[in-house]
Amino acid sequence: MKAAPDAKTGLYGIIGHPVGHSLSPAMQNAAFDTLGLNAVYLAFDVIDLAACLGGVRALGVKGLSVTIPHKEAVLSFLDEIDPVAQKIGAVNTILNRNGRLFGTNTDYAGAVSAIEDVIPVKDRKVIVLGAGGAARAVCAGLVEKGAVVHVANRTPGRARALAEAFGLNWSSLDGIGGFGAQIIINATSVGMRPHEDETPLMDASVFRGALAAMDIVYAPVETRFLKEAGKAGCKTINGLKMLIYQAAGQFELWTGLKAPLKVMEEALTGALV
Ligand code: NAP
Fold first, then answer.
1. What domains appear along the chain, each with residue ranges and CATH number?
2. CA distance 188 to 183
3. Average pLDDT, the chain
4. CA distances for 150 relative to 92, 107, 135, 165, angstroms
5. What per-residue confidence (pLDDT) applies to 1?
6. What is the pLDDT of residue 273?
7. Which of 67, 128, 154 to mutate to test the pocket of ligand 1 (most atoms within 8 A of CB)?
8. DSSP 3-state assignment of 126?
């Protein structure tokens, strides 16, 4: 049985607004418990970022996950930022190094690990739908692994800004027909509960000829986008995979230990029911 918290318990958590729905406490606490670490991970509903990070320094909170709406704004409150997170423009992980707050991003490596469980991305033609913080992280991971990426977004100016930052091609959402994608990724928020009947892909025939499709939306687990991809014969990767891998990356940065992936996956599945 887990020992009660004491004077040496390490404090970790997630900051966001709202944050009551977060699945991260289930995953991270299960990982701490399995490895017998004297640590606890809580969810903090935060509006005032400056006050929050002052508290983190004052209380010696060891590490934080950062979620919507703070992933971009938090950059200006940190002491040091990993260059990739800086280029993505979003931090999802903070490490407290003796009072100095270091920001990094595990979404990009998490996204690629999720895809590469199913298909290697090197030299593959990949369409990324979306140009928000998550899409920027997904593109950073794909570029690092040598994929050929085309970005498409509802607001074309955001697609162009992302494409220019990472040296990619871009278009509006209806301009992807001729690209011949082998992998298609939904990195928009379209299809999220309660709008399960929506998909960002205007023409499902784009799935024909593709090998795999990933949706980073994880509620519901099987989105309309993934259902249509599966019907067209693509291998499908749901958003829970990226969620687990980005959380495992955080755990490893905070503790220096290998994350117990299976345990984290079971905790996540348990928290979903
Ligand atoms: P964001 O910065 O707000 O970006 C949202 C994106 O969705 C933008 O590209 C936006 O297009 C597009 N979009 C929104 N409504 C749309 C609509 N009706 N039609 C077409 N496009 C629409 O959000 P984010 O941080 O990138 O997060 C996006 C999603 O990823 C969220 O659902 C989040 O929960 C999920 N996520 C999952 C993981 C994971 O581990 N699985 C990790 C991070 C994020 P415009 O630019 O035109 O507004």
1. 10-105+242-272 (3.40.50.10860), 108-237 (3.40.50.720)
2. 15
3. 96
4. 24, 19, 11, 13
5. 64
6. 77
7. 154
8. strand
In the chain, count H helices and then E strands.
9, 12
B/e letters for 122-132, b = 16+ CB within 10 Å, e = fewer, are eebbbbbbbbb
State the pLDDT at residue 244.
Answer: 98
Ligand 1: residue whose CA is nearest its atom 23: 132
| CB count in 10 Å sphere of residue 270 | 12
* Of residues 211, 17, 60, the one with CA closest to residue 126: 211
Average pLDDT over residues 240-267: 98
Q: What is the 3-state secondary structure (H, E, C) of 57-115?
A: HHHCCCEEEECCCCCCHHHHHCCEECHHHHHHCCCCEEEEECCEEEEECCHHHHHHHHH
Ligand 1 near 89 CB (within 6 A):
no
| Ligand 1 proximity of 154 Cβ (cutoff 6 Å) | yes
pLDDT of 94-150, one tens digit each? 999 999 999 999 999 999 999 999 999 999 999 999 999 999 999 999 999 999 999
